[in-house]
Amino acid sequence: MEFPPADYMIEDSDGWDYNSPYTFKGSPSATTTKKHGTYWLAEYGFDPVSYPKEEENPWEYPAHFIMKKDMKINDVVKEHVLPLLPAKSLTKFRVVSKEWDKWIASPLLTHQQSFSCQIFSGYFYQDVIMGGDPMFFSLDYSSSGVPTPFLDFLPEQYVKILSSCSGLLLCQGLEKYYVCNPATQDWKMLPLPQYYHGDEPAAVLAFEPSLYNIEAYYHVICAIPMLGQPIIGFEIYSSESNSWSCSSACCTDLENPKLLGGGSYMKGVAYYETKSNEVLAFDVKNEIPAIISLPVLQVGSHGSLTQMEGELCYVTANNECGNVFLIDIYQGMEMSLKRSVSINLGPETSFTQACEVLPCVNSDAVAIHVGNFIYLYHIREQKLVEFITSPCAMDPGNKFLPYINSLAMLHELKEP
């Protein structure tokens, strides 16, 4: 099947307008389709027969596979390097050749990239108090970006970003929830839940792409405080059934059942921060709630739940003196102190006491927001790698959500 030339091949050499870090001229998503299974892959020229037929010699190497000794550097890059790259880089590389254009647009590469590329790309941020539009802040504009950081491809003019997971975002409109991929502009409007979730829902998006399952389903888990009672219930949406269900599990042991809204997900567990010094954890598969006690912070310290090298951590930072900041890293279900690091952010800027830790994902970096800058300190290398001008001044109303630049597919039809 021949693919028509992409729009960006005509207008621009790489599809991105470098006059503005937020503008994209590329073609619409090539991942949305109404077909699944072997017929879906066959449209892109992939042989649905992956194994030899019974009459074939089982000891003979399949003809449609390329043996390692016959592979050229172009084949190695196409098969093994491209799936590791972020979505923006892949979009730019479609101009290399017709073969690369067809391969990058294929659902097989899209699926491989959504699983293999877990590079921390930047932040979506929004003023949740003043109700500002969402924006995207890339750590590297040359490789990671989204076509429309305002998410204006969604059917509602204003949405609030609640959760981010493996390249997908969970957003809230006036009444509806939306799950979308900002890199491909693909989206899904969820059906209305059975219960009222409130204006500040504690909703977490759970999405784990699997290399061996092209139908990568996702869930939305909303923790619901019961009116007038110290009880937290849970309502769960499944993309596989396209419906909500109420969990039989509930939590009654929180010191303060007031949740802060939003949340995060990692390795099968959704996490919600509370008004008290506790985190509510919910095992999605087994529907079991648990409570994690956070360390008592010093006056002036600010902490954040973050993911460091596949482990849930609670990272705090406080200004010791001048440009020197102390970072404490707590880890595990007991949240015991694992490491303390004292870092000097340099003489470029004079600091005040105010600072905050921003959440990270799939990284060994600690992100500290101080004044008008975001500083990234890599724990493994024990050095301050870089500091970046912050898109907004530090303010308690600004919400930062870590983002991975992914081609992950939603697999469901958009509703009109």
UniProtKB/TrEMBL annotation:
- InterPro entries tied to this protein: At3g26010-like, F-box-assoc_dom_typ3, F-box-assoc_interact_dom, F-box-like_dom_sf
Q: Which Pfam families does the record match to this protein? A: FBA_3 (PF08268)
- Which parts of the sequence belong to the F-box associated beta-propeller type domain? 157-319
Name by which UniProt lists this protein: F-box associated beta-propeller type 3 domain-containing protein
Species of origin: Anisodus acutangulus
